[in-house]
Every structure is written in C-alpha cells, then in structure tokens.
Design brief:
Helix content: 25-40%
Order of helices and strands: EHEHEHEHEHHEHEHE
Structural class: alpha/beta
Shape: globular
Strand content: 5-15%
Largest sheet: 8 strands, parallel
Radius of gyration: 18 Å
Mean pLDDT: 93
Distance between the termini: 25 Å
Length: about 290
C-alpha cells in the first residue's frame, strides 16, 4: 500500500463515461481477524456481504494465489456466487512465484476462467524497489504465455503499482508489457486534507493516464487501490476518522465507480494502523457506503 509521497494539489478533471460498465469491488484479505487463513465458507460470507452493501459489489481483488490457499478456497465460493476476481500473482522470491503460478493453473483447470476479471502480476514491486522493470515485464509476459497455453488468451494481464512508479520513465517497459495498468493512489499518504482528497486523486490518476497513453496508447488504467483510514496517525493535513473516510468515499468512490474499473482499499483491515477498512470485525459498515 502506497506510503510517504509528496503533496500535490492542482485539479485535473476526471473523465468518466457513464454509458460504460465498470468493475467495482474491494481489496479482500485472505485472513480472518484471528489471523487464520480463510476457508471456502469464509470467502462465501465475504462475497455475500459485498453483494448486500449499497452498490451490490460483485467483484473483488485478491493479492495472492497460493498464500493461505487463496485461490483453492476463494474460487469455489466465487463461482457459486457469481463473483469475479482480480487475481494477484506475487513475483518476489522464485519459489513463491512458481507456487503462485501453479495455484493459478490449478484453479483454471478445476474451474475454468469465468470467475477471472484479470490477473495482476505483482503489487507495488516497483514502488518498493524490489525488482526492476525488465524482470517484471518478463514475468508479466510469462504469465500471459501460461494463460494462453491454457486456452485463456482472453484474460488481461497487468501490474498494480503506485502512481509514482508509473510516471517514472525507467518503468516504461512494464507499461508496454501490460494489458491494463493498476493505479494505486492515496491522498492520505501525501498529507492532503480530506476536502482536497478528490482533487489530489484526480491529478495523480491523470498523471498515470497521461504516461500510459504516451507509452502504450489505448491501455486502460484501473484504480486498484485508494481509500481513507478510519483510525491511525495524521499525515500532514490528512486526519484519519470515520467522518473523513465517509467524506472521501462520497467524493472519490462515488465518482470513480462511474469512470474506471475500481477496487477500493479495503473491505477489512481492522488490525492495521492506520486502518482503511470499511467493515468492522463483524462485517458491519463503519459508515454509509451509498452513492
């Protein structure tokens, strides 16, 4: 999750296309409040709760494929409920990367591909400087080839990273390798007050779109992480609170749901500080999620 960025204020218009249909969902953890891994029943409960919220969310983002048996446990529940998943494949550590690919292959062999929104190879690897662009681009292409070998050439493969990583010229090989670009942007971490949150978010999203359109025209930019914390420490003018999270949702979520594929951060992260979760430990909304 994005951390420690410089303050940005100017307004850039957010372009929406109301007639288009967009994926909208939440980033979901693979663990229960106790820390134990979710089983299929737990994932089924997650998906049921998301559908019951205002907006009736029918898609979700998962960070990993093999960790906690994520796909093995989540996919049966997704198929049964009609939930679509943005699948994560971790790239760090070669053994882990191989286990992630194997878990994805196994899930597709067992359940087909109707449950997949797309596949994200890595998450904020460039921001953390855990890899280089050439290596990550190669891994994106490897996963695409793997899917093609399974008869799943229609599935888009991309990468999720911070807007600061996407506008860095040294990472352009990753953009070229992507079918879609996942944009993570948090005005909170930039120290922006919540009343300027929408403006800051719009500006940073437009920066990512501008670079992507220059490097690989026609590539869609998805919003894969954004949100505002309900608890935690202040960063500059950004203050966590339920009221501020509510205000950010009303201004940002209710706009971007109409103009981009969006996965909000997060459904639950009540054990973290700051905590960006919109649901408490009992799966009840912490604030009004209507638009």
């Amino acid at each position: 999750m994005l951390r420690h960025l410089a303050l940005l204020i100017p307004l850039v218009l957010f372009i929406s296309t109301p007639s288009a249909a967009y994926w909208k969902g939440f980033n979901l953890p693979a663990n229960l409040p106790s820390g134990t891994c979710k089983i299929t029943q737990d994932w089924a409960h997650d998906f049921s709760v998301l559908r019951s919220l205002p907006g009736s969310f029918t898609s979700a983002r998962l960070f990993a494929s093999s960790d906690c048996g994520t796909l093995a446990n989540a996919v049966p529940a997704a198929v049964a409920s009609g939930t679509k998943l943005l699948v994560g494949v971790w790239t760090e550590n070669s053994a882990h990367y191989e286990a992630e690919k194997a878990a994805l292959v196994q899930a597709i062999k067992q359940h087909g591909t109707s449950w997949i929104v797309a596949v994200s190879v890595g998450s904020e690897d460039l921001y953390r400087a855990d890899t280089d662009a050439a290596t990550l681009a190669r891994q994106i292409n490897e996963v695409r080839t793997l899917l093609q070998g399974l008869g799943a050439s229609n599935i888009e493969v991309g990468h999720v990273d911070t807007w600061t990583a996407w506008v860095d010229q040294k990472n352009e090989d990753v953009i070229r390798a992507c079918d879609f670009v996942g944009h993570d942007g948090y005005p909170y971490w930039e120290g922006v007050s919540v009343d300027q949150g929408l403006n800051a978010f719009r500006q940073n999203l437009e920066k990512t779109r501008s670079v992507v359109n220059r490097v690989k025209p026609g590539t869609w930019v998805w919003v894969t992480e954004t949100g505002w914390p309900v608890t935690g420490a202040s960063v500059g003018l950004a203050t966590p609170s339920v009221a501020n999270a509510q205000a950010y949702w009303k201004s940002v979520a209710c706009e971007i749901f109409q103009g981009a594929h969006t996965f909000w951060y997060a459904s639950q992260d009540y054990s973290s500080s700051p905590s960006f979760g919109v649901l408490d430990a009992n799966y009840k909304p912490l604030y009004d999620l209507s638009c």
